[in-house]
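dumping this here so i dont lose it again. seq + smiles for zinc ion
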Amino acid sequence: MISAMIPKTPLEDWIFSDIAAASEDGGRRTRSCIESYQFQKIRDTLEKVCAASPFYRKRMARVVPADFRSLADISLLPFTTAADIRGDHALQFLCVSQSDVERCVTLQTSGTTGQAKRIFFSREDLERTEAFFHYGMSALVHDGDRVMILLPCDRPDGAGGLLGKALERMGLKSLPYGPLKDVRDAVDVILQRDVTCLVGAPIHVLAIARSGDSAALLRSRLSGVLLTTDYVPRAVVDVLERELNCPVYTHYGMTEMGWGGGVECRARQGCHLREADLYIEIVNPETGFPAPDGVWGEIVVTTLTRVAAPLIRYRTGDISRFLTTDCPCGAVLKRLDHRIYRLENMACLRSGALTGLPLLDEAFFPLPGVMDVQATLTTQLNRDCLAVSLMLVPETDPDRTAQAAVQILMNIPEFRVAVDAGMLTLAPVRCICCSSIPTMQKRCLKRSIIS
Ligand SMILES: [Zn+2]
C-alpha cells in the first residue's frame, strides 16, 4: 500500500538512459543489464589505465584486460589505497595531459600520515557529478524549494558549487551559504530568504536545530534536509526529524568518488548508488575477499566513466553493506545501508569488545543539547581508558547532562563487562557548553597507546 505511494528514485531513469546509450540491448531495466554495462566499462577502464596511467601500467603489469571475463574477476585485480594517491605520486594516475585537468583537489586528511591526497577531474568528470547531484536531489526536493547549501561554495567546481549548478538546471533556487559558523545568522537567513531545504554536515544541521529557539522557529518550515560530508549517525537523523518535523535524507560520497556516491530516495531506506559511474564492492577489510550481499565490510570503488584519473578498486576506509531487500520505491539500483562508518573510528578494546565512535554517537546524541561527541581511547598494557567529551549548545545544563551521560556509559554492556574485568577505565564525561561551531572536518575517534 505504502510502497505504491513512494516515487521511484529519479537516479534510475538517469542511469538507465546512460546504460541504454552505451549498450545495444539498452531497453531492459534489470540488474543483469546494469552489470553487463559495468563489466564493459571496467574492461574499457582497464585498457585505458594500462595504456595511459604510469601508476597502473606498473601496478597492473601482469593484468591482461582481455582476461577480465566477468564482473567477479574484478576480485583478482589489486587494490588502490589512499597512500597511492598522496603527494606528487598522484600525478602517476593521470590518463590525460595536465592541461586537460579542470580541477585538482588536495585533501589534507586528519591524522598524521603526511602528504595530502590529490584527486584530478576533467571537465567531463565534473559534469557527471553535476548530473548526479541533479538527479539525486530530484528525489527529495519539490517545485519551488529554495535550498541552502551549508558546504564550501567558494569554487564553482567544488561540491557546493556543483550542487548549486545542479539545482539551477532543475529550475530551483539555491543559496550558497558555506559551512556553518554562526547559528543565529543561519537561522535568520533561513527565515528571511524562505529557505525550505538544507544540505549540510550532520553536526552543523544538528547545531542549528538545537540552538536557542531555532527548533521552534524552523519547525515544519522545511520540506527536507540532506546530510552529507561525514557519516550520519542515525540518532542525529532521529533528533532532526523530530525537532524540525521534516524528512532527513542521507547522502554518501567522498572526493575520490567525484563527491557523489549514493543518495536516499523518498523511502529513506538506504542510499541508491550511482551505478553508471561507479562500481562498488564490499570486501572483508582484513582478507580483502568479497563479502556476500548483506554482510558488513569495507567499501571499495572502481570508477567507470572517470576521464582524468580513473581509480581501480580504491579502498575507501568506510564500512557498510549492501541491502538485500527491495526498496519500497521499486528501483533496481543497488542500495548501501545508510549506516556507514569509518574504519578508523572503530576500535577493539583490550577486553575483546568492538567499540568506536558510532556506538558513542548513538548513545549520546539523543541527549538534549548535545552538538558533538568526541572520544579518546588510551591504551596502556592491558587496560583501556575511554574519555568522552560532549559539546553542548550554550543553553544546556552541563552538570545534569554529565550525570545522565555517566549512567548511559555504564549501561553500555560492552563497557560494563570490561570495567568489571578491570580492563577499562571510564574517565568522567566532560560536558562543555560552547558557542563555537565544530569544523567540517570528518569526526574521528582519537587513539593513543602508551608503551
Ligand atoms: Zn528507493
